[in-house]
Amino acid sequence: MAKLYYRYGTMQSNKSNQIITTHHQYTTQGKQCLAYSTPIDTRSGFKKIRSRVGLELVCEYIHEHIYDEVREINETARVHAVVVDEAQFLSRKDIHNLSDIADYLDIPVICFGLKTDFRGELFEGSKVLLELSDAIDELKTICQFCNKKATMNMRMLDGEPINVGETIQMGDEEYVPVCRKCYKARLELVK
Ligand SMILES: [Zn+2]
């Protein structure tokens, strides 16, 4: 049975590079891999996934009929995998549809996303993926301020950390990956 995967990390945890590499591994073996993202984040350009090291992948956007779309493509030419970027922005319904692709079409679905927002709270898409995925991996990176593993995203505004504002803020130059202790220290949440 195909699995639903969730590979989560903080900002700068190499997610886009990994999704592009995964896609490349399938296609170089002559296997069809469909790439999707969400229309919420268009920093990389319209229907594009772009990594920090300059790799780029054309994608489609997840929509409410994603299951039927993949089923129809798979009937014409076998689909070997589906990769999804920015999965934190997906709805519960979107993720149920993706799980149906794994369960009923027997196609692995590999989702990449941010676990938590800059308040340290789960994104809706991440919450559902943590609930439903068969396999969950953490993509690791290092805290901006010390040498520990980063687990949180700190939002910076004019060089100062803040934890207020809209949940969905674009422009990852505004965010730095930090460990929990540095997050508390920088936001003066230390007891
Ligand atoms: Zn730290």
UniProtKB/TrEMBL annotation:
The keyword NAD does not apply. It is found in: Cytoplasm. InterPro entries: P-loop_NTPase, Thymidine_kinase, Thymidine_kinase_CS. It catalyses: thymidine + ATP = dTMP + ADP + H(+). One of its GO terms (biological process) is DNA biosynthetic process. Zn(2+) binds at C143, C146, C179, C182. Its EC number is 2.7.1.21. Homotetramer. Belongs to the thymidine kinase family. This is Thymidine kinase. It comes from Salinicoccus sediminis. The gene is tdk.
